[in-house]
Amino acid sequence: MQTLNRRDLLRWGACLAAGAGLSPWYGDVFAKGLDQLASHRVKVLWLTAMSCSGCSVSFLNTQDPGPVEVLTELISLVYHPVLSAIQGSDVGKMINELTSKGGYCLIVEGAVPVGIPMACQFEGKPLTDVLPEIIRNARAVIATGTCAAFGGIPSAEGNCTGAVSIREFMEQQGLTVSERLVNCPGCPTHPQSLLGTVAYLIAKGYPPVNPKLLTPDMYYQHSVHDECPRFHYWEKEVFAEKFGDDGCLFKLGCLGPLSHTHCPRSQWNGGANWCIRAGAPCTACTSENFAKSRNFPFYRKSEKYYAVNYTEADRKGVS
Amino acid sequence: MSSTVSLRPLTRIEGHLSVHTETEPFNENNDARRVTEARCEGEMFRGFENVLVGRDPLDAQQITQRICGVCPISHGIASVRAQEMAYGITPNHNGRILQNLIFAANQLQSHVLHFYHLAALDFIDVKAILKYSGNDRTLKALQDWVTHAVSSNELFPVAPFLPQWEADYVENVDFNVGLLAHYVEALNIRRLCHEMGAVFGARLPHSTALIPGGCTQVPTEQGILAYSSRLKQIFSFIRDVYLSDLIQVAQGFPQYFKIGRGCGNYLCYGVFLMDSSGAKHIRPGAVIGNRWEPLDASAIREEVSCSRYQATAPLHPSRGETVPDPNKHGAYSWIKAPRYRGQVMEVGPLARLMVNYHDPDNTAVKQEVDVFLKKHDVALDQMKSVLGRHVARGLEAMRIARLAMQWIQELRLNEPPAEEFEIPKTAVGAGLTEAPRGALGHWLEIENHRIKRYQCVVPTTWNCSPHDDQGHPGAVEQALTGISIENPSQPIEIGRVVRSFDPCLACSIH
């Protein structure tokens, strides 16, 4: 690309870092990664498994750099099922060729149905048959969204497809997870954490992650509760009793203490709003336990109706 | 000789769809084929209805939004409506307006995304950018990229724009470059629609602010300003760019007013509450063979003889079942086959237009549509086509943007954003609304304060349904029958017909 110069790249890197409240050091790293992406040295392959495409749509909500820069200048997105002009049997051929060449950065959105393999197909075959080879030849794998990262709603209690996360699928298939798979959870994933993680991976290799969750520390270290703008209400024990009230949202069901993410710093949709600011309890959509248990509802309104089997400590995230 | 022409996978839609057509030759001088039969295969099943059983009813509007990342708000609204019926409440004034505003933002987002980013590449010759001689920064960047990539023998140049199939594109450079420029502009407009929805919806996709009875956020002056300033930009884009691009594409590909007619039956549940009576701005109804009738939701049945579920008699969704049987004999899709009075129905913007056009009590829509049709010399019957669906979507975007401008002025500052409610021990509810892609219904049964049964019948379930128990093909399958395919190895015509329905596969199966 001739039109993108070093100053543009430094600017986008700096914006990407500043947007999530990261230090300027990250800005330089991101700029380096974006440079490699923009010059097509690293290609990105995006596949959808059992997903709603919400992470794809969320990715298109990226700001600074925006979707225009990302799609037409920064990322060589060799294939994206929702956006690519390519269609029909050409898709399979293209993915085969890309897989045999290797070296691409693979982004997977959605969980994988190991119980009913036919519940997610690619070219009429179970995705579980074709995915291992695509993963094996990737230089890095990013599981975007809570479905891909932790199984999410498709693997919630009561599911009948045996859906699992990408990590569990890789382990079952004997594929190397260590230093290769990064989880970027969120339902959907925030565009900043996805783009930043891709840029970091390319510039500096595998990022520092939470050893248990494989989530990059730069985005998923602090809880919503720790950085909550309503934290002062919590300290003073001023609680919202009904929707629309001021006060800490804990008694309405807020799971901020269980959600580790950069939402309080980044907010959503270019800063237009975000859950806590809108008085909406955090649903801990980045948590490994998001939506998993029937007996752990998002809101607390029903506690009076039936015996709950979670404790206050479960909700507060203290063990 | 009959042969199968397939589009597997069909990209630039939401989700996993393959289309297979049986074809016969019809022109002796070339390879062109005519479709005699078509099959839509929905290829991804998650089992949302099963996951919802046993949960707190209040989880439903959060969980069901994850059925679809393109139209989460529609599922949120359908779920909220079903719960409101079960709880015996209606949204208060602000709650209704806030829900309408969030909903409108997402509908506009979806329509813009569909036309520009999903469908338009079927009608644009991307390589025309090589002949661009203007000075727009983005277009020049795109031009450099295409030039470089085409000459470099790269394996997959200029994704996601290329490689694309050779086809009967319009040769005019300005036509193609203009549409490409608007594709790029629409990326920002689509994002702006989501920002606008987030102003009251907390964030998009997957709003956390939507609750039965309204919304979690008290409207403020800043919120109203933030919404309306974005709406103005979006409104101008729809009026000045989107609608004129539709007309250009229609003039460039007039044959598509005759292609992809479909079943000719239309179903609409209505959407956007006007007041607490349940009346809706876009009105419900059905049109079967040009005859309008009021909506009778009890006439819906889901059939599964060609779907990968355990066989049952046709069931109303309030008694619906979802027991997977992936290798069932004769089944070829994870999509069920919903029918209305046993009839195949089309849903979506065209269905909403047809139902409201033929509604005897709704002269406003008829007038508006007649003015447009007369101006562009299109007959109402021609609207039953690929182009008709695109045009109906564009006209609807305009109508929704206008309505949103009214609603934003009706918000009452610092008044409660939601109606209070209690969850009954036992109750049933049905939430009927319209997603961008058409009629959407959620049916809910509560027992011991928990969900006992939850069933969704989604727009693409109607449109992309497989054959039913009687062997009647679904709406898209019917629209494909009879079309001709110039080059069977690049069946771009199949994609154009199917995309005009704006299918969402994650939705259709859920």
Write the layout of secondary structure elements.
The complex is a heterodimer of chains A (319) and B (510).
Chain A: H1 6-19, H2 24-38, E1 44-48, H3 54-60, H4 67-74, E2 77-79, H5 89-101, E3 105-109, E4 112-113, E5 121-122, E6 125-126, H6 127-136, E7 140-144, H7 145-150, E8 163-164, H8 166-172, E9 181-184, H9 191-204, H10 217-220, H11 231-236, H12 263-266, H13 312-316
Parallel strand pairs in A: 1-2, 1-3, 3-7, 7-9
Antiparallel strand pairs in A: 4-8, 5-6
Helix pairs in contact in A: 1-2, 2-9, 3-9
Chain B: E1 3-7, E2 17-25, E3 33-42, H1 48-52, H2 60-63, H3 72-87, H4 93-119, H5 137-151, H6 173-201, E4 210-211, E5 214-215, H7 221-252, E6 266-268, E7 271-273, E8 280-282, E9 285-288, E10 291-293, E11 300-303, E12 337-340, H8 349-358, H9 363-375, H10 386-410, E13 427-435, E14 438-447, E15 450-457, H11 459-463, H12 475-480, E16 484-485, H13 492-500, H14 505-509
Antiparallel strand pairs in B: 1-2, 2-3, 3-16, 4-5, 6-9, 7-8, 9-10, 11-12, 13-14, 14-15
Helix pairs in contact in B: 3-4, 4-6, 4-7, 4-10, 6-7, 7-10, 8-9, 10-13
Helix content of chain B: 25-40%
Span from first to last CA of chain A?
52 Å
Indicate the overall shape of chain A.
globular
- Please state the average pLDDT score of chain A: 95
Secondary structure: number of strands of chain A:
9
Please identify the top-level CATH class of the largest domain in chain A: Alpha Beta
How many strands, what sense, and barrel or not for the largest sheet of chain B? 4 strands, antiparallel
Secondary-structure element order of chain B, N to C: EEEHHHHHHEEHEEEEEEEHHHEEEHHEHH
CATH architecture assignment of the largest domain in chain B: Orthogonal Bundle
Output the CATH topology of the largest domain in chain B. Cytochrome-c3 Hydrogenase, chain B
Number of helices of chain B: 14
- Beta-strand percentage range of chain B: 15-25%
* Unreliable stretches of chain A: none
The number of domains of chain A is 2
Assign the CATH architecture of the largest domain in chain A. Answer: 3-Layer(aba) Sandwich
Strand content of chain A is 5-15%
Strand order of the largest sheet of chain B: 1-2-3-16
